[in-house]
Amino acid sequence: MYPDSETRELDVALLDWLRQAPAGFVRLAPTRSASYGLDAARAEALASRFEELAMALFHYQYERVPTYRQFAQLLGRTPSSIRRAAEVPPLPVAALRRTRVATFPPESERASFRTSGTTGDPGVLHLDSLDLYDVSLERAFEHHVMPDTDRIVMVLLVSPPHESPHSSLGYMLERLRRRWGAPRSATFMRGEQLQWEELRRALEESVAAGEPVCLLGTAFAFVQLLDAAADSAWSVRLPGASRLFETGGYKGRSRALDRKTLYAKLNEALGIPVTHMVSEYGMTELGSQYYTLTLRAALRNEAIPPVESWSAPFWLRPRLMDSESGVCTEAATASAPGLLTHHDLANRGSVAHWLCSDLGAPAPPSFQLLGRAPRADLRGCGLVHERSDAV
Amino acid sequence: MQLPAPSHLPGAPGGLPERRLGSTPLRVPKPSAQVARAVWQALDSAAAAWRRRSSEERVRVLARSARQLRARGPGRWGEALQRSTGLSAAGLEAAWDTTFAPHDRDSLLRALREEALDETMLVAAAERQLLARRVLHVVAGNVLPATWIVLARGWLLGAAQWLRPAQREPLFAACLLADLAEIAPELAACTALLWWPHADAATSHAVVAGAHAVTVQGSDDGVAAWRHQVGRCKPAPLFIGYGSRWSGALVTRAGQTRDSARGAARDVALFDQQGCLSPTLLFAERGAGLEKWCRRLAQELADLERKMPRGHLGARARAALRNWHETARLDQAVGDLQGFWAPERSIAWGVILLRRCAAYESPLDRHVVVVPFSDPEEIVRGLGPHLERLQGLALAAPDWSAAKRQDVLDRLHPTRTAPVGSLQLAPLGWPQDHHPPLRSLIPGL
Question: pLDDT tens digits for B30-50?
Fold first, then answer.
């Protein structure tokens, strides 16, 4: 499987660390270490290990990904010139649409995921191993969505894997179904269309059996569910401990509802308390994801924090890029909104530090999402965009 | 300092219901259909008196007004206009000057001559009601001349005019009319100004119903929405739409000088590159000196940033620019760009040099794309359908014969050409979006 010893050793070290490091915040506290529930010594040891592994990954990826090397050189940031993980240059996610970004030759590829292409042509993430991806996914999901149970009926609102073999979300939810899904877990989408009658029957059966359910899907799919339920004048009260896992994004495919409205309507339709609805923020480019802490807080009878602040596993570090200087700082301690970067040590096969086009604002201990910062702000007369506010 | 309200409604009764304008603490009246009719009538009557003056006299008053406005500068309106336009103090001074500078007596007379509009014809057009005597203008908020130039055209022809400014920048027209009330009250008397929300169909209908012509500047979608709305009026007024356009420059090898770099930088920096005459793509002939010229252009933009800094941008706009800078670096890394020049740790400006002749998006705000070409036909091939929206083209081609220049212009078909450095100084007679600037308001001719 491993073409070389360096890759094997790095993967062993990363896997070992991903299995030990905290998989998410335990509460929202003013500082990161308090949010992870760490004492000072443990926090320092973990931070130090993050630095070591991040630098090792940068050396490795700089050597093996030509585009990344050239990009870093243009910025004057090379393995010999940087000393801290925060200085590792984030590669714009657009790179996946321009070129192959992989630390391994094509013949070693084991999986590939396509990006959605929301802002242009789709890109491709190439992977030679899913080990880090799987560990990261399962540990963080368990921490944020399944801290209190080993099995649950999983109702998947994504196309089955054979329909979307290159969907990272499809892969991810199928993996979760295999790991946590009780019998009767199934997917209820075909070709992006909700199979409403099947879903309705399955949910009613769960109610009859008193079996809690975990619904998993995109905001787009949940809007389809709400529309179908409204058309049928249908609602249900799912058994206690039922929960919902929503990964954002409408991608222009349905009417968009803000999250608060979406959750309120889902609560009306399904009877799942809003406190048991977990949002996930992730992207194909990343091997790790962010989650809200709502369910954990509810299980501990703690108040839900008023300001959204995303919890991340310790190996995923959100940063904000200062728009003027281009310098990245920890998201929680940044002084102003900026483009979000994600330094994810689960990304060994591509690059670990990605720059995305989402705008974030500091919200200690983490960040708040402010939506997309388009490549061009639509203010004036340009070649491919229009005056947006003229009339 | 009392801000001028974005409403100036000669002939309107007092006590009109008011409402806030967006987030700015300005209150604007909400006129009924009856009030809108009364305003149009008052404007009509003032415009009739103004039309009785000879065209020569109207030119004289307009040229004098432009001269006096230019000399005044933004002055007392400076602070408020900086906020509403988003320009820096120096940027606003330059924008104000550029707005009024081109409109001297000769330029106005030339505009009439170019469309063969002599005194006899103008009198006949007015008497035989061939002229759109009541014109509603819905203007864009990105640059100041957009407002001045449409009004000046109407004034020159003697039309009563009603202007709806953009929500984004509602103040310039109000400042302009407040100044004109002092220096040329006859112009202010035949001009109304009112902002209202686009969704307020009742006000739109009340104002449109009294108009003979409606001009609309904006996005293609915005223009189409207005066209639809205006078309529903019976009888429907004449509709003239100014949609989305872009501008460029064409610089030959011999034209790649320090002066042309300076001129191009000025064309780009004026109005912070927000206008449809602001160049975004600079077509530059390939040659040994091209990179050097790009470096000069970058130096000139840096120099302008010191002397006439770009205006303040919000967090989202700054993030979008940073995203563009980082993506440009990526494009450079994958070999799509021949060069990229930007200030250290800043997004104040940017120059990229492409490897091949193709379209490449500029985020504006003083960011230009230099597109190399060897033969003008390469531009036609490389830009394809984008050329249909070409507005202005600045030229620095001293080594091309007049015939060659004309041949290239015929193929690129811009609505305006000017030497590099003066593209933004558009005269009133500029056929914006290929509309005859004056005759389009005389549909009966």
Answer: 999 999 999 999 999 999 999
Residue B348 φ then ψ, to 5°: -65, -30
Mutation target for A interface from B163, B322, B361: give the one with most A CBs within 10 A.
B322
User: Which residue from A372, A248, A272 is spatially nearest to B317, judged by alpha carbons?
Assistant: A372
Please name the member of A373, A379, A383 whose beta carbon is closest to the beta carbon of B274: A379
* Alpha-carbon distances, residue B98 vs A254, A381, B265, B424 (angstroms): 46, 18, 15, 7
What is the Cα–Cα distance from B51 to A29, expressed in whole angstroms?
73
Q: Which of B44, B147, B52 is nearest to B95 (CA)?
A: B147
For residues B82-104, average pLDDT: 97
Q: Max alpha carbon distance in chain B (Å)?
A: 69
Size of interface A-B (CB pairs under 8 A): 182
Tell me the residue type at A236.
V
For domain B7-244, the CATH architecture is: 3-Layer(aba) Sandwich (3.40)
A303 contact B CB<8A: no
Tell the CATH superfamily of the B246-419 domain. Answer: Aldehyde Dehydrogenase; Chain A, domain 2 (3.40.309.10)
- Which candidate from A326, A338, A382 shows the least CB-CB separation from B364? A382
- Tell me which residue has tokens 């979000």: A340
Rounded to the nearest 10 degrees, the angle between the axes of helix A196-209 and helix A219-231 is: 80
Taking an 8 Å cut-off on Cβ atoms, the answer to whether A383 and B221 are in contact is: no
pLDDT at B445: 83
Whether A76 contacts chain B with CB within 8 A: no
* Residue ranges of domains in chain A, CATH in brackets: 132-299 (3.40.50.980)
Instruction: Extract the tokens encoding A314.
Output: 């310790």
A120 touches chain B (CB under 8 A): no
For chain B, what are the domain ranges? 7-244, 246-419
CA-CA-CA-CA torsion for A147, A153, A159, A164, nearest 10 degrees?
A: 60
CA B160 to CA B44: how far, in whole Å? 5
Determine the pLDDT at residue A385.
Answer: 40
Q: Which residue has the tokens 């320009």?
A: B87
CB burial of B159-194 (b: ≥16 within 10 Å; e: otherwise) equals: bbbbbbbbbbbbbbbbbbbbbbbeebebbbbbbbbb
CB B318 within 8 A of CB A379: no
B276 touches chain A (CB under 8 A): yes
Buried b (16+ CB within 10 A) or exposed e, A18-51: beebbbbbbbbeeebbbbbebeeeebeebbebbe
Residue numbers of B between 42 and 81 with CB closer than 8 Å to A: none
Contacts of A338 in chain B (CB under 8 A): 315, 319, 322
pLDDT of residue B212 exceeding 70, the answer is yes
Per-residue pLDDT at A95: 96
Q: How far apart are CA B175 and CA B188, in angstroms?
A: 11
Would you call A374 an interface residue with chain B, using a CB distance cutoff of 8 Å? yes
Under-50 pLDDT residues of chain A: 252, 376-379, 385-391
Question: CB-based contact (8 Å) between B330 and chain A?
Answer: yes
Beta strands in chain A (DSSP E): 91-92, 111-114, 124-127, 153-157, 186-187, 189-190, 193-194, 213-218, 243-247, 277-281, 290-291, 316-321, 328-330, 338-344, 353-363, 366-372
CA distances from A44 to A49, A50, B298 (A): 9, 10, 45
**Which residues, numbered 126 to 155 in chain A, qualify as contacts with chain B under a Cβ-Cβ cut-off of 8 Å?**
none
**Confidence check: pLDDT of B100 > 90:** yes
d(CA B18, CA B10): 16
Per-residue pLDDT tens digits for A237-250: 999 999 999 997 65
The Cα A375–Cα A43 span in angstroms is 37
Chain B residue with Cα closest to A389: B168
